[in-house]
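INFO  loader      accepted 1 record
INFO  loader      residues=294
INFO  predictor   begin
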Amino acid sequence: MTEPTPKLSGMYRFTSIARPIDPAYLTNRALIMVLPLLMLLSAGLAAIYDVGRGPMSAGLNGALVAFAAWALTRELAPDYNAAAFVALVLAWIANVTLGTTQVLLVFVALLLVRLVNRSTGPRWRVLDTLGVLGFCIWAAVNTQQPLILVVAAGAFTLDAALRDPLRRHYIAAAVCIAAFIWMLLNDVRLIAGDLTAWDWGLVGVFAGGVMLIAARSPDPVSYCDTSPDRLDRVRVSAGLITGWLLAVQTLITNGRSAWLETPIWLCLVAVLFLFAARTTKRRAGTIQSTTMIE
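INFO  predictor   done
INFO  writer      dumping tokens
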């Protein structure tokens, strides 16, 4: 992800959504080796302990949850390769110990963050827009979480307004809002009733961390997949905020159970942890340099 791709090739000739796992990159090769190991571990644990799933199902599910967390975190923080693997491990542990299994919203978040940060490079094709728009509407109806459509509308609006804008995404945003209103008219529950002050306080902590990253992160060093251009700092920050908003809407709609239903929050934990580690290391280096000068 930190190396430029010289020209459009493969699936990039047809779509701007997909990002193939190219084994030419070290992090991708590591992922390809780790996922089968996690699959075997999940299957083995399911065979030893009664987890309500067969070994094959548990193995596939464990690998899928881990991969989804890795992929989303890579979009949330393109410069933090290690964060993606921290999220992968956390998500797998949550899967085998706490039953964190839902990945639909993770992939919704992944696509919306990718829409905003333009990690692949080129603007979306018409079919890309229609496909993701339909997927978001289906996901909102399937999960009965109408606020997904509000977040999607925000993501489409950001892509239509930020650097190198794609103006037709204003129309996609309007369609999302129309679908949101339609869901409300069909008596879909919007706000859960079991959230406490502790929940909102934790949401505030995450909000503060995300805003701090957005405000203090330097210009990205990662390149777009299809060009020698580096990612845009504003778009990357907006993508991170979009991911956080999708996690928050899940909590608002589904209540306290949403903390563990999907690994989205664990992805944000991984990003915040790596940011804190980098900041601490940078400060320690600055203090050491100052001391040596004195």
